[in-house]
Design goal:
Length: 338
């Protein structure tokens, strides 16, 4: 049955350029098949980049060859009326961009080697770009170079967050309002997530107790990010927040939200998608709405790791992305909306 689904998805991708079925198989069923990338590359399709997550070394090497040997102009792109409006340089820029997107998603040792090489010894195509290869690595692939080594910016393990009217207080990860008020808007702070690292499912987080992730939900859409320091005994303190706007959540509304619990079983690492259906999870790869936003820890200066994505089902508007620095015990929340 699954083999037939994969075959149908690839046929649809090849014949019409529709990648939805392939993406669905990757995100919800965790299908790992180099055939997705092979069909996409042949058809000149590079969006969504998740199609290249499990690309074969053959496809990887073809992409590398195009950039290493300045042959990006030979890359095939699926037909689009949009391209007729672009200059020759803009078309090359788009092709280089697509190559880097796919390679960043592959992100193996060979890609890391070339990205570092192209960063320190730029190719001619670098002049066409606003950012270097290592920014593609973070923005698209979810990895960076830290202390000379590749560091993943997300956890491979992932558990969905699901509504549960019958959840016990111990199972509910939504912590409701805190006692403190936001000094900017007067709303109550919200313990948006309460996570117990002693839960076997969350052992991958490396947290030895319970943490509360607190921020002002009213202000978050109006500020770039909010930082919170946590302890493993369930306490947390806001340490950095820019000014917000007027209060628009009442405590009663926040406290009456439905409980959310962790899924019983692990879901694929790329489970999260900005589709309003499966956009709430702990761990895994985030699906940023308009460009990645991996934040730098305000204390150690290192990139923070993605911890949770809270989408429409959880909060009812936009998407909240929560990241963590376990060394400094700091979390941050950011907001994106279409």
């Amino acid at each position: 049955m699954l083999e037939e689904q994969i075959k149908n998805a690839i046929n649809k991708l090849s014949e019409s350029g529709d990648a939805d079925l392939c993406e669905e198989l990757i995100r919800t069923q965790g299908v790992k098949s180099p055939a997705f990338a092979q069909a996409a590359f042949k058809a000149g399709i590079f969006y969504p980049a998740i199609l290249y997550q499990d690309a074969s070394p053959e496809i990887r090497d073809k992409l590398i060859d195009l950039l290493e040997n300045e042959k990006a102009d030979q890359l095939k792109l699926a037909d689009s009326p949009y391209y007729s409006q672009l200059s020759a340089d803009d078309i090359i820029r788009r092709k280089v961009d697509r190559c880097l997107d796919a390679l960043a998603m592959i992100g193996d040792d060979t890609v890391v080697e070339y990205f570092q090489k192209w960063e320190t010894t730029p190719k001619a195509w670098r002049k066409l770009l606003n950012i270097g290869p290592l920014e593609y690595a973070a923005d698209v692939g979810g990895w960076c170079i830290e202390d000379g080594k590749r560091k993943s910016l997300f956890f491979e393990e992932c558990y969905a967050l699901e509504k549960s009217e019958n959840a016990t207080p111990e199972d509910n990860v939504y912590g409701k309002t805190a006692s403190e008020k936001c000094p900017s808007c007067g709303s109550s702070y919200v313990n948006m997530l309460v996570l117990d690292g002693r839960d076997e499912r969350l052992s991958f987080l490396g947290i030895n107790g319970k943490i509360k992730i607190k921020y002002c939900e009213s202000c978050l859409p109006w500020t770039e990010s909010v930082f919170c320091r946590y302890t493993e005994d369930g306490e947390s303190t806001i340490i950095q927040q820019e000014g917000g706007e007027n209060r628009f959540f009442e405590d009663e509304e926040l406290n009456n939200r439905a409980p959310f619990v962790l899924s019983k079983k692990m879901v694929p690492k790329s489970y999260c998608a900005d589709d309003g259906l499966h956009d709430c999870a702990i761990g895994g790869r985030p699906d940023f709405i308009y460009g990645a936003g991996y934040i730098t820890c305000p204390e150690c200066g290192k990139r923070m790791m993605h911890l949770a994505q809270l989408g429409m089902e959880f909060i009812g508007y936009g998407t909240h992305y929560i990241q963590i620095c376990r060394d400094c015990k700091i979390v941050t929340a950011t907001y994106q909306q279409t």
